[in-house]
Amino acid sequence: MKFLSIVSALLASAVAVSAAPVEHPARDVWTPKILYPRAGTVWYSGQRHNVTWDLSTKPAQITNNDGAFILLRSGEIETPVVVGHGFKLTDGRVEVTVPDVMTRDDFSLVLFGDSGNWGDQFTIKGVIDL
Ligand SMILES: *[C@@H]1O[C@H](CO)[C@@H](O)[C@H](O)[C@H]1NC(C)=O
């Protein structure tokens, strides 16, 4: 019984987590689409790359423009790894260094400005390959 309630609690939180991305942002919240890296991209740890995002949907007024940053996501998990920071959301790109990771093909980047917004999954050939 105890096991079952733990399982159902886990399921409930999994549902809550997977439900989060579908919630519709308020109208003044801008979540620009990440254009690169895209599906099929392969990066190597230590390389420099430009992450780019779509500025065509940019609203006139943007809150938190200067506080933009990018986190690494692995599968459904948002990691605390900061891939880029100290740029403006209106820049449309930021040059980053690919972090040291274990090789995986389910990485994605989360671009934060007004709210978090993640791009396609891609591969990083990391420093550890199991
Ligand atoms: C990133 O883009 C800038 C501007 O186009 C360019 O000067 C720079 O060389 C690019 N960096 C990389 C790693 O491609």
How many helical stretches?
Answer: 1
**What's the architecture in CATH terms?**
Sandwich
| CATH topology title | Immunoglobulin-like
Helix/strand-derived category reads: mainly beta
- Total beta-strand segments: 9
Q: SSE layout and pairings?
A:
Layout (H helix, E strand, L loop, with lengths): L1 H18 L14 E3 L5 E3 L3 E6 L14 E7 L2 E11 L5 E5 L6 E9 L3 E3 L3 E4 L5
Parallel strand pairs: 2-9
Antiparallel strand pairs: 1-3, 3-6, 4-5, 4-7, 7-8, 7-9
Bound molecules: 2-acetamido-2-deoxy-beta-D-glucopyranose.
Descriptive notes:
The structure is a single chain. With 130 residues, this protein is mainly beta. The chain has a single domain, classed as Immunoglobulin-like. The protein is built from one helix and nine strands. The strands form two sheets. Strands 2, 4, 5, 7, 8 and 9 form a six-stranded mixed β-sheet that branches. Strands 1-3-6 form a three-stranded antiparallel β-sheet, with no helix packed on it. Strand 7 and strand 8 form a beta hairpin. It is elongated. The chain starts with a helix and ends in a 5-residue tail after the last strand. The site of 2-acetamido-2-deoxy-beta-D-glucopyranose has 5 residues, from strand 3 and strand 6.
